[in-house]
Amino acid sequence: MKLLLDEMFSGLKEYFEVLGYEVTTVHDVDLKGKMDKEVAEYAKEHGLILITEDKKPAELVDLLGGRYFYVDNKTKSQMIHEKIKKKYLR
After folding, report:
1. Within 10 A of 12 (CB to CB), how many other CB atoms are there?
2. Helix/strand number for the chain, H first, E second
3. What does the buried/exposed string (b/e) look like for 35-46 if buried means 16 or more CB atoms within 10 Å of the residue's CB?
4. For residue range 17-41, what is the model confidence (pLDDT) as tens digits?
5. d(CA 89, CA 44)
6. What local confidence, expressed as pLDDT, does residue 90 receive?
7. CB burial class (10 A; 0-12, 13-18, 19+) of residue 64?
8. What is the Cα–Cα distance from 4 to 22, expressed in whole angstroms?
């Protein structure tokens, strides 16, 4: 699978690559600081799943018919909760 990491996730590029993803960041394609619409359009046009914690680009890529994963505080909390349970509540 191919991912486009929004600015806040660019530092995770190597981690996703190790997990087997083909990864592009907004920095790699000169989209850093660009309008959310441009980021959404790029993700859709290149068949990339946008990974973001900003609601607007997620909504825009969805409207364009693209794919995304929106990481909100609820999602982060649930992931951390599951990891804590798995590690400490056996």
Report:
1. 15
2. 4, 4
3. ebeebbbbbbee
4. 999 999 999 999 999 999 999 999 9
5. 41
6. 67
7. middle
8. 9
Average pLDDT over residues 37-49: 98
Cα 85 from Cα 72, distance rounded (Å): 20
Residues contacting residue 55 through CB under 8 Å, at least 6 positions apart: 70, 72
CA dist., res. 43 & res. 56, Å (int)? 14
CA distance 36 to 56: 7
Element (H, E) at 74: helix 73-88
Q: What is the C-alpha to C-alpha distance for residues 5 and 7, in angstroms, rounded to an integer? A: 7
pTM of structure: 0.90
- Do the Cβ atoms of 4 and 50 come closer than 8 Å? yes
